[in-house]
Design goal:
six-stranded mixed sheet; three-stranded parallel sheet; alpha/beta
Length: 201
């Protein structure tokens, strides 16, 4: 949070898994309040205890101290003189909607926030220029083998693990995130808050 505040970004986006238990809400609000501007937020599967983590509890997310929660909604804002659409997918409905429920938008730049990286396989070609997602926690517990290979113990067959991917005119960034699930540690899966610098082609 302090690092983000120092960077003073034009746009802050949070791609889900804010809470696993209701008792974390006061700390969440304390952290959000320290951000330099209102973030755009979508929820993840852990926010609804839709996971194999036996310690997760469904959370009735209360009022956020800061930020705009997007649940199958989009907004158009102006950044540096450019119209930017920011849309957010509810993690409970994303499969049924396949992220195509959003009406066409003529904003110059269009960003989709979807917790699940497989959104890249489902979005209509050309609809979004940037997709921001998370979900995999960088694997959380990863076994390195060979010089470059890594085995993710959770989601071992995932196509989109972390970093940048492109398909159908969209670029997607999968954040490794900051949190954990099931066990409170990571192994060979460093947590990360990511700064993306966008440049026109």
């Amino acid at each position: 949070i302090d690092w983000v505040a120092e960077r003073k970004p034009d746009l802050i986006c949070i791609t889900g898994d804010l809470l696993s238990r209701a008792r974390g809400q006061p700390m969440l609000n304390e952290l959000l309040a320290r951000l330099p501007s209102d973030p755009y937020i979508v929820l993840g599967n852990h926010d609804f205890a839709l996971s194999r983590d036996p310690f997760s509890e469904p959370v009735q997310l209360g009022r956020l101290s800061r930020g705009r929660l997007l649940s199958d909604q989009s907004v158009v804002i102006e950044l540096r003189g450019v119209e930017v659409e920011i849309a957010g997918v509810d993690p409970r409905s994303w499969l049924s909607y396949r992220t195509s429920r959003f009406e066409p938008c003529d904003a110059t730049f269009r960003i989709l926030l979807c917790h699940f990286p497989r959104a890249l396989d489902y979005v209509p070609s050309g609809r979004w220029q940037l997709i921001l997602s998370g979900h995999l926690h960088g694997g959380q517990i990863v076994l390195p083998y060979g010089r470059e290979s890594r085995l993710l113990l959770a989601h071992p067959s995932s196509r989109y693990r972390q970093g940048l991917y492109s398909k159908g005119g969209a670029t997607m960034h999968v954040s490794p995130g900051l949190g954990t699930t099931f066990v409170p540690f990571r192994y060979f899966a460093r947590p990360e808050a990511t700064e993306l610098v966008l440049r026109s082609g």
